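Shift notes (night). Ran NADH-quinone oxidoreductase, E subunit while the centrifuge was going.
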Amino acid sequence: MASQSNGEHAHAAHGDSLQMPEGTQRFETFPAENPAEIVFDDADLQQIEAYKSRYPKKEAAVMRTLWLAQTKFGWLSEDALKLVAKTLEMPPADVFGVASFYTMYFKKPKGKTHLAVCTNISCSLCGGYEIYNYLKEKFGLENGDVTADGKLSLEEAECLGSCGTAPAMQVNNGEYVENLTVEKLEAFLKEKGIL
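Came back to this:
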């Protein structure tokens, strides 16, 4: 942060995803397309019971249960968040608080292939913005957007913890693609049927 003469601080933006908040920040939730389909089956409930048994308090299983819900439903709709709260007998606000804090939880639908490109310092210095901007321009996406065909979504990641293999990209909250170049990215996109 650079100090200005009037005693206030100027904030340098990191990429295009960091904006200084004005007024009250809101955590938006979106309803599921078909809320009747947002249910845990018996196998899910057994898994959640196993999660709860690992902790002294059932509330500690919230992150694993959110992950299970996201894996099952593809993202965490308002209905899925309420289901997790009801299943764990927690206040919905507590579940919403956890989901809103962690970027690994998708609070809106993502593309079939979701790319999180790291633009933090190591990745940035090694070409992270080149990769991120290539994807933005090639597919007409902004941070958090999904292509019209639903095949691809893009996110600017703050840090993927892969500094030694920068620049890095995470695919669908799982696989890492590291030491990225535009050529390596294009080969990956062709392999996935996106290019």
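Helices lie at 42-53, 62-73, 78-88, 92-101, 121-125, 128-139, 182-191. The chain is about 35% helix and 10% strand.
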